[in-house]
Amino acid sequence: MLTPTQEDILKELYNVFVGEAANLLSEILQKRIFLSVPEIKLLSLHELKSSEKENLIPVLNGTVLSTSLKFGNVFSGRADFIFPAEQIKYVTALCLGEEYIVEDTEFSFNDEDFDIVKEIGNIILNSIMGGMGSLMEMKLEYDVPQVILHNAGEFCKALVSSEESNLLLLYVSFGVDNSKVLGLILIKFSLESVEFLIQKVNEISRDLNE
Amino acid sequence: MNDLYVAIINQLDNGIILLDEQMNIQLWNKWLAKYTGKSEEEVKGLPITMVVPRFNKKVYAYMFEKALSDGQKSFCSAAMHRYFVDSHCADMKQPHQNILIQHLQVAHQSYLMIELYDVANHYKRIQNLNKSLQSSIDFSKSLEQFVYYDSLTGLPNRKFVLDRLEHLIKEEDKVFSLFFIDLNGFKAVNDQYGHLQGDLLLQMFAERCKQVVQKQEVVARLSGDEFLLLVENRTSIEAVEQYVAKINKLLQEPFIIEEQQITISASIGYACFPQDGVTAKQLLNVADDQMYVQKRAKKKGF
Amino acid sequence: MKILVADDSMFSQKTTIKTLKSIYPGAVYETANDGFECIQVYAAFLPDLVFMDLLMPKMSGQEAIRQILERYPTAKIIVLSADIQLAVRAEVLSAGALAFINKPINAIKLKEIELLIEG
Asked: What InterPro entries does this protein's entry cite (chain B) (predicted)?
């Protein structure tokens, strides 16, 4: 759905937003964060076959924690930052400066885990929303994200069966101290909003080629 | 400010700080006064970083700025930041506080509002809850151990095997063999050396079984000196003979009891699913009968 | 004046060159799409100045800086990155980069380091 130029521009813009979030996170944790080259995809959910929907994002078929927020009025949608659940204990240990001990396969999460995910999600989504607001030259209204634990497959089901029809997938993996953690950013847009976004990207592209 | 609103803010069960655009404290609610021992009169008008030195860090300055310029809300967890304001209570050894920073605008006047939640007790409560949950999980595990395992040898018991058989029978395209093992001359050991030594022999035999048992195999103790070996996916004559040999080999080495070498043999009967029966009961009967036939033959042989 | 811009994003390459042209209208520009290509283009083009992204496929900017400076110790490299962590900045500056610019680039940020470039 995106031309290579559009994809390139969006990728670079989001790169800057994510970089800002990583910087803040590294100052809070006092640790170096290693970022990967992000990948970006814009999908139209209506055009996907049901089998494609199920395997859209393999990570989502497992248990995941999401931090989600709704944004905007005119330019509107929902943004999620997603963590595979099996990484949470590791991230918590990392944030608390504790040693990570591999536990049983059963997960038990506590408030500390949820709060950490909420804060990381807040930092990342703030950077993205802030960046997107200035890109669109409008003030996007949004709240502190909510943390939700989804059982295997639940999140994906809800994702593909919603009103907003366009999905911007942004994969970034980040590592701390040589360990890789995969985080996924999903932004769902209403149809008008995605047209708005693409229009903006095209404007940038035109300005550049003048 | 309206007295009623101020009264409400002072009744809240969390800390509220209001800053003006110059980062000076304009409001410091009762909760904070109690928590820190600093009254609102003492701190009003002072820069926040003077009263709460931890806010001197660059990250907080960034969050304050983003709140004022873009209306961004920032959540800081106790897990990552520990705490912000000092508690004047000596017994509060490890303060844990979450904060939420947000922007407020009233009639062209911008403010920053900081909500502060003391979560130390909360975290502690959840930790205790998790601990008690864990102990009840442990308890149910030990209950399961009690129901499904034999307390003398630690091997799965009759109930375990019956459940497993029922399960396998229901599954599609499943085949398996089971071997009924009865130790010959065990009664004589019991009579000669006493029950304690007899139990010891059963434990030693169970240990040998555990050493060699593989995936898709189960060795269980049914009762007394009766054991059962369940082997999934294999029913051919060759396989059956292999397993009979394997069991006999386990008994080759003598057991040492009261410094005496005792050699014991076994009578083994077997049944295969589905050819020898379609219920657990039928299969056990077939294997049991076969075992008896063998036992009698052995006795005659002696 | 010859300037090489290494960035995996075409958009970023173009933005950088466009911004640079406002200061160096007469310069000749070359581009590279990753760290590996940057080293090759450097050897052929021998630029006066390199603008280098860090997060690139095939070879990172950090590695390209190391290899270029090893062969051309007087190379002038300016890092242009979205990864603005202090540790990253310190790392590339100690590796021999001349300056570090936070993405996105603009004329004001360029002006600030202009003296450094000429010096």
From this structure: DGC-Regulatory_Protein, GGDEF_dom, Nucleotide_cyclase, PAS, PAS-like_dom_sf, PAS_fold, Rev_trsase/Diguanyl_cyclase
